[in-house]
Write a structure and sequence with these properties.
Number of domains: 2
Largest sheet: 5 strands, antiparallel
CATH topology of the largest domain: Beta-Lactamase
Structural class: alpha+beta
CATH architecture of the largest domain: 2-Layer Sandwich
Radius of gyration: 21 Å
Length: 283
């Protein structure tokens, strides 16, 4: 992505179809799709003509698609390009959104937490839980979440951005999988939200600022990965109770607000369960 003099990326760069296609094309190994991979290639990945051949479209049309000169490509063409790029279902849907082939529902960006989420948050007592928006701003949190992340020096009550805190170098040691899981998933979620909320200048400013401030964020953004990350595990190395692992679940409400409840749980009798109990007792 390019940026202006302030280092903030322009909105069109964040949701640009051509830049996304170029980034994904560069990630396809020619040998994996039956094409020769020799030392004469000047850039990684597939050439435009090779991608066009695999997708069954003309080189001229695919070139216009990358250059933003192909107006409203058909679903069939986009699906063919997605197959050639070896995109999974989540990333294919992202491609369609960038091309304008998916009608987005109304988007209601706001800091006010949905009442039903507040009720669910209040009901979660024995496990950490947070409410975040599409930018991963922390809108609310329960006591155990504040104790968990407070050990890293994070103040969840001040309404911080989770991704910005995650990329603070002082917190990397607390996440054993920071480089391979935590950071890539956080950036991939922002990539998906950039297409769902294309008119949010705060999201654009967040992405631009993090790209300028953190080289690894810029590298991850350039990969053009798109993920839901609704379920998974998170490994912690907490300064108070040591290493443990928790299950992560994200419950996003379908009201167009982008808000979600995030819970971190562990089965009774596991090390994670016992470590959470120690945190709770000591807070």
């Amino acid at each position: 992505m390019s940026s202006d003099a302030t280092g903030v990326h322009r909105l069109e760069d964040v949701v640009d179809l051509g830049k996304f296609l170029q980034a994904r094309r560069a990630r396809v190994n020619p040998a994996e799709v039956g094409l020769p991979d020799n030392d004469r290639r000047r850039v990684p990945g597939l050439r435009r003509e090779e991608l066009a051949l695999l997708a069954g479209v003309s080189v001229d049309y695919y070139t216009r698609l990358e250059q933003g000169r192909a107006k409203r490509p058909s679903e069939q063409v986009l699906d063919a390009v997605a197959r050639a790029l070896r995109l999974d279902e989540t990333t294919r849907a992202h491609l369609h959104r960038l091309a304008g082939n998916v009608r987005l529902g109304p988007r209601r960006i706001g800091a006010k937490v949905r009442p039903s989420l507040e009720t669910m948050l209040a009901a979660v007592e024995h496990f950490p839980a947070l409410i975040m928006n599409h930018r991963q701003d922390v809108l609310a949190s329960n006591r155990l979440a504040r104790l968990l992340y407070g050990g890293f020096g994070w103040d969840l009550e001040c309404g911080p951005n989770f991704v910005r805190m995650l990329f603070d170098e002082d917190t990397h040691p607390f996440f054993p999988d920071w480089e391979t899981v935590c950071a890539p998933e956080a950036v991939a979620q922002l990539r998906k939200m950039s297409a769902l909320f294309p008119d949010d200048p705060e999201l654009v400013a967040l992405i631009g600022g993090l790209s300028v401030e953190h080289r690894y964020f810029a590298e991850l953004w350039a990969r053009a990965e798109v993920m839901d990350c609704n379920i998974g595990t998170v490994r912690f190395d907490h300064p108070m109770v040591g290493p443990f692992e928790l299950y992560k679940d994200q419950f996003r409400v379908a009201d167009g607000s982008g808000q979600m409840l995030v819970t971190l749980t562990a089965a009774p009798g596991t090390d994670g369960y016992e470590k959470l109990a120690l945190l709770g007792a000591g807070g």
